[in-house]
TrEMBL record:
Enzyme class: hydrolase
Catalysis: reaction(s): ADP-D-ribose + H2O = D-ribose 5-phosphate + AMP + 2 H(+)
Family membership noted in the UniProt record: Belongs to the Nudix hydrolase family. NudF subfamily.
GO MF annotations, alphabetized: ADP-ribose diphosphatase activity
CDD domains xref list: NUDIX_ADPRase_Nudt9
Keyword Signal listed: yes
PROSITE patterns: NUDIX (PS51462)
InterPro entries noted in UniProt: NUDIX_hydrolase-like_dom_sf (IPR015797), NUDIX_hydrolase_dom (IPR000086), NUDT9 (IPR039989)
Name of this protein: ADP-ribose pyrophosphatase, mitochondrial
UniProt keyword terms in alphabetical order: Signal
Function: Hydrolyzes ADP-ribose (ADPR) to AMP and ribose 5'-phosphate.
Organism of provenance: Sander lucioperca (Pike-perch)
């Protein structure tokens, strides 16, 4: 415990020093390659309801992160994930495109996995003419933040400079839409009674978390929205594939699991967040946006009884206590904080 507290202390000092110099901070845990994992404080905005065919979502008094109140941080991580590419350093006061900065000279980078033209990726600009700020065929190129600017035929990140142009690891020019299903339950004892935290005196939530294969960080088991796919289907599909590995189990077992999954995802959930994601994969021309929805197994007899099995992009999967000390990928910690407040649970 003493070692952990000392570590938190020096991490805090490093973050403070970098912030004072106007630089994004990068703090890596042992055994994880350099991907920015420090969280930043953001004011909040009111969430909105989305329409789906499977889940009955409700709005909440809990508020979510704004579209432009604070400069993105993880989108300026010093080394672009999955590469040795160093971003052009962008201080906080130069993030916004409205700031004149003739010296800005970002590196251009698109990962080979994207350059090889997989079905989920756009061609390069010039070989096709995408229709930005609208639904382009089956591909939704609109942004939750509203209309974004186009410069020299390429979309500009609505949250400003990142130090890298191109698409990096992202398939789409402009917004790349994802969906994050946050599946929770109450932590209970052997008698089925809720367990309360010794300090906050609030009941403890648990959520299904996966350990990402690409960066080794724990995350919500989300994924990309396929062209023409409803967000509700993405939420259910991604959870089933990443947390239950339904693609690898026999059809007879898959039917039983689907029944429970359908029951949970048809239940009333609430939209935790809808908008831009401060993601280390973001570039000046491609960025992540998501819809995060919480589905709660209140009685503990739905998904809670299913055996978790990592699949697809997950290295590991398990139920994890919701707690502010548990660091998560991208903006996922913020999403869990909002869920805790809404459920009046420990954070």
């Amino acid at each position: 415990m003493v070692h952990y507290l000392l570590r938190r202390d020096w991490i805090g000092r490093i973050r403070l020093a970098l912030t004072l110099f106007g630089l994004p901070c990068t703090v890596c845990t042992p055994g994880v390659r350099p991907v920015i994992s420090c969280s930043s404080s953001h004011p909040f905005r009111t969430s909105q309801t989305i329409s789906t065919s499977f889940c009955n979502l409700y709005t909440t008094s809990i508020q979510t992160m704004p579209s432009s109140a604070a400069p993105h941080v993880k989108s300026r991580c010093l080394e672009y994930p999955g590469s040795k590419i160093q971003r052009f350093l962008v201080p906080d006061d130069k993030v916004d495109w409205s700031q004149n900065w003739p010296q800005y000279n970002p590196v251009s980078y698109t990962d080979p996995s994207v350059v090889n033209k997989p079905v989920w990726a756009d061609p390069d600009i010039g070989s096709f003419s995408p229709k930005f700020n609208t639904v382009d065929g089956a591909v939704d190129r609109t942004s939750f933040d509203g209309s974004y600017k186009i410069e020299e035929g390429k979309p500009l990140n609505p949250h400003g400079r990142t130090g890298v142009t191109g698409r990096g690891l992202l398939g789409r020019w402009g917004p790349n839409h994802a969906a994050d299903p946050i599946v929770t339950r109450w932590k209970v004892d052997a008698k089925g009674e809720k367990i309360y935290h010794s300090v906050s005196k609030l009941p403890i939530l648990q959520f299904v978390s996966i350990k990402r294969k690409d960066c080794g960080e724990w995350a919500i088991p989300g994924g990309m929205v396929d062209p023409g796919e409803q967000v509700s289907l993405t939420l259910q599909r991604e959870f089933s594939e990443e947390a239950l590995n339904t693609l690898a189990i026999p059809p007879s077992e898959r039917v039983k699991i689907s029944e429970r999954i359908n029951k949970l995802f048809k239940s009333a959930g609430f939209q935790v967040y809808k908008g831009y994601v401060d993601d280390p994969r973001n570039t000046d021309n491609a960025w992540m946006e998501t819809v995060a929805v919480n589905f709660h197994d209140d009685s503990g007899n739905s998904v809670s009884e299913l055996p978790l099995q990592a699949g697809d992009d997950a290295g590991q999967v398990q139920w994890v206590d919701v707690d502010s000390s548990f660091l998560l990928y991208a903006s996922h910690s913020h999403f869990l904080e909002l869920v805790s407040k809404e459920r009046q649970a420990h954070w």
